[in-house]
Amino acid sequence: MTDPHRPAQVAHVVPHEAPFGQRAHGAPTIPRCFVAYPSSPADRVECIETAIETIQSGGLVDIVGWRGLGVTGRLMIDRICDEIKSREMFLADVTGLNPNVLFELGYAIAHRKRLWLLLNPSIDHARSEWNRFQLLTTVGFASYNNSTDIVNQFYREEPYKNLDQNLYDDLLRAAGPPSKTDALLYLRCDVNTEASMRLARRVSSGPIRSVIDDPQEIREQRFAWYVQQVH
Predict the structure, then answer these.
(1) The whole model's pTM is what?
(2) Which string of b and e fits 116-141 if b means at least 16 CB within 10 Å?
(3) For the chain, is the Cβ count within 10 Å smaller at the N or the C terminus?
């Protein structure tokens, strides 16, 4: 029986020209891409890192995963954030909704990066968990079971050819005009602890105008609403 997470050994044919422009002195430039994924389970890590190696060898994009970064003497999160900011594309495996991956995804959205998301529907509850994650259910993803699926879909969809498309601007257009009044956006805790209630009272009675996201009043806000408030 074959392991659905272990990549099949097949050849990939990709074009040789880089479609992203020219550097000074005629050297071709290529889009730069960062990949976020969980550190476990091992078979999924192997699958994604094999796809990274295959895509990198194709020469159309400069692609690196978080484990390929040199972080000696630095905080890992600082190095990752710097790398996301410096690259035009952001790929993420959202299977299982790993908190670190979601943080990095939000960081990439805020920096207007071109997104390309991955999800392995063969993992138990992966699709249902994604569907319950209301903030991003309208965002598409590429399904995969192995590294070959990732590589083939990457070259078929060619996300590196439309780097000007980003979710942040799409959400702004969907949300309508931005808020015209400066205000403090307060995301209230969904549990009324003593600390939460004291903080909520202080925000409400303080001199700074505030907009409060209270999950006890509205359980789930649209992602576009948050973008509109902070824009």
Answers:
(1) 0.72
(2) bbbbbeebeebbeebeeeeebeebeb
(3) N
Of 93 and 187, the structure prediction assigns the larger pLDDT to 93
Looking at residue 48, its amino acid is I
180 and 159 in one domain? no
Neighbours of 221 (CB within 10 A): 15
The total domain count for the chain is: 2
| Same domain as 193, residue 153 | no
Pairing verdict, β 142-143 and 184-187 = unpaired
First to last CA, the chain: 52
Residue that terminates a domain, selected from 165, 188, 218? 165
Task: Name the percent of the chain lying above pLDDT 70.
Answer: 79
Average pLDDT, the chain: 82
Range of the domain at 197: 176-230
Phi/psi for 84 (5° steps) reads -60, -45
**Per-residue pLDDT reduced to its tens digit, 116-141:** 999 999 888 888 888 777 677 667 89
